[in-house]
Design goal:
The complex is a heterodimer of chains A (329) and B (265). Chain A starts with a strand and ends with a helix. Helices cover 26% and strands 28% of the residues of chain A. In chain A, the strands form 2 sheets. In chain A, strands 7-6-5-8-4-1-2-3-9 form a 9-stranded mixed β-sheet. A 5-stranded parallel β-sheet of chain A has the order 12-11-13-14-15. Chain A has 7 helices and 15 strands. Chain A folds into 2 domains: 183 residues, HUPs (Rossmann fold, 3-Layer(aba) Sandwich); 124 residues, TPP-binding domain (Rossmann fold), CATH 3.40.50. By secondary structure, chain B is of the alpha/beta class. Chain B folds into 2 domains: 215 residues, HUPs (Rossmann fold, 3-Layer(aba) Sandwich), CATH 3.40.50; 32 residues, no CATH class. Helices cover 27% and strands 28% of the residues of chain B. Chain B is built from 6 helices and 15 strands. A 9-stranded mixed β-sheet of chain B has the order 11-10-9-12-8-1-6-7-13, sandwiched between helices. In chain B, β6, α2 and β7 form a beta-alpha-beta unit. In chain B, α2 crosses α5. Chain B is globular and about 70 Å long. Classes of the chains: A alpha/beta (329), B alpha/beta (265). At the A-B interface, α2, α3, β5, β6 and β7 of A face α3, α4, β9, β10 and β11 of B. Bound molecules: flavin-adenine dinucleotide (2 copies). The site of one flavin-adenine dinucleotide (FAD) has 28 residues of chain A, from α5, α6, β14 and α7.
Chain lengths: 329, 265
Amino acid sequence: MGKGIFVVTVPDQGTIRKVAFEILSEARKIATAKSEPLCAVIIGKGVAALAGKFAPYGADKVYVVENDLLENYTADGYAKALADLITREQPSIVLAGATVVGKDLMPKVAARINAGMAADCTAIGLDGDAFTVKRYMYSGKMIADVKFQADKVAIATIRPNVLIAAAPDASKSAEVVNVAAEVSAADIRVKVLEVVKGDAGKVDLTEAEVIVSGGRGMKDASGYGILEDLAKVLGATVGASRAAVDAGWRPVSDQVGQTGKVVSANLYIACGISGAIQHYAGMGTSKVIVAINKDGEAPILSKCDYAVIDDLFKVVPPLTEEIRKLKAD
Amino acid sequence: MNSIVCLKQVPDTEAQILATPDGSDVKLDGVKFIISPYDEYGIEEALLQKEKAGGGEVTLVSMGPARAVEAIRTGLAMGADKAVHLDDEAFNGSDAQAAAKALAAQIKGMQYDIIYCGRQAIDDDQSQVGPALAELLGLPHTSLVTKVEVAADKKSVKVNRQIVGGEEILEIPLPCVLTCQKGLNEPRYASLPGIMKAKKKPLQPVKAAEIGIDAGTVGAAGSGTRVVKFTAPPTRTSAKIISGESPEEKAANLAKALREEAKAI
Ligand SMILES: Cc1cc2nc3c(=O)[nH]c(=O)nc-3n(C[C@H](O)[C@H](O)[C@H](O)COP(=O)(O)OP(=O)(O)OC[C@H]3O[C@@H](n4cnc5c(N)ncnc54)[C@H](O)[C@@H]3O)c2cc1C
Ligand SMILES: Cc1cc2nc3c(=O)[nH]c(=O)nc-3n(C[C@H](O)[C@H](O)[C@H](O)COP(=O)(O)OP(=O)(O)OC[C@H]3O[C@@H](n4cnc5c(N)ncnc54)[C@H](O)[C@@H]3O)c2cc1C
């Protein structure tokens, strides 16, 4: 073991998710401390054009793993391609974003190669020679320091928006290694019949830097209009509490919380949300939390950084205007 | 339609979780336990598919300490037919991959068309067991499933799966593993007659040796990760209440604070 720190990326329609650069930047420090090469791994069909994106963030080497059968993401095809590469190259740790794809792919790969795995980590480090990660447990109520055992390859997925991407250095270059993945049609048992894209321009909540979220206080589905307006000036994604989702005002995919999405935004604005423990579990690691609530006793007031105690319908529209002005300056 | 539902007992979502003074463990005494909410979707879907097919069996498989029996009985009261409880010291300290190995060893010899897991257990929050279990059993899987339609010939299922910014519709040959996401169904409550009946339903305790598991591959010994310390997350110091005579003034002051102080916009 010990032949490199791998950072795996599955591009989504030709773009690389930001979390890959966040992980590379942090992993660069670990690779240097361990004197191991930092290797980006990119998997898909026709992804070679993206190979140059990783060196500026510190990658020494880029594996471009391709096969025509890897056009759409399938756990079967991608797990085979990645597990084969890991088995051949024997990296000491494999890192990937805790995205929808990362969460689906990496535990399967871990089982295939008998690796140790920790999911949705918020920090990576070293304790002597051993890899360590931090991760939340019990829905954000506890932080666990996890140590990887030396006898297995380590795999960790990293929560987006938590690690900080370094400034890219365009003068850096990396060795590119092209790998023809050995995947056959018979390996891929799950057939993609249809992909129904929702709001195409919308940044997924789990990767959004700014989130404007609305709860039962929005009164009905049309109440979200003012949040959409605020989100537009902020470049934010709109989220919701379970109460709002259960009422049918917003789709299930908008729910933030213990039984929804876990988000980690730079700025989270909670409008008409009381701040139940199950909601906080999904957004508590956001950097700046703002509450707009008419109840001065709402639990969210002890869990946020800034609070406006007033009627959200009277506060949000002028807030949108104020921010529009600030942004125009 | 024979289904297996992997069920984990977890602390109630409201429970306060504290670390022991030395940080080596969490204190769970006095905590109320429930079925992990995503596993309830699995139980409900297995029951619905059994009803639709007009026959078959729903078997719960749970690994956990003695107290897990309570959650298993609740699952039986919802309508599952029987249950297996992996209860052995050898499983102590299993991480998610080791847990998947234990479950796979149990499930290997069983009869089933679909195995349902939750999207994630809401205590350890790993989201690993479903995909790992499928791999260990040599089965295909799909995670984050919000709709399940079994083909007329019962040889495949069509499922809807949540992806970034939309949905995918997939076809998977049976048997397979599905991980359940909110939106799949509305889990039923255990009825009073259901609770009475559950008491007589078969609940089989199983030891590691009985499923041919080498103790070194599960439990702390078989785990590639170990939690070395638990700490409480930092709490936010009390919020800054934005002042102002009117909503408009508060809005302006908030925008200013976010720009100048928090540097968030
Ligand atoms: C197992 C389980 C899992 C759960 N998972 C989740 C989850 O993933 N996500 C989640 O969000 N919840 C979850 N919940 C539900 C959670 O307990 C709360 O019920 C829910 O978060 C409440 O949503 P809310 O804050 O929108 O509504 P409420 O608690 O009703 O709060 C509404 C708030 O709006 C304020 N308000 C009303 N009108 C106005 C106005 N005009 N201006 C300003 N403020 C106003 C009120 O003062 C109040 O504070 C879960 C619960 C359980 C039991
Ligand atoms: C430090 C530590 C010590 C532990 N010690 C023990 C112990 O002594 N004894 C013990 O039994 N467990 C123990 N566990 C928990 C156990 O190993 C977990 O089941 C395992 O970590 C799975 O991860 P998860 O709960 O995050 O599952 P996830 O991967 O998030 O779960 C997804 C789904 O898999 C299924 N699933 C997960 N776990 C189980 C299970 N146990 N039984 C049935 N189905 C399941 C459920 O359908 C669940 O919804 C321990 C965990 C940790 C982190």
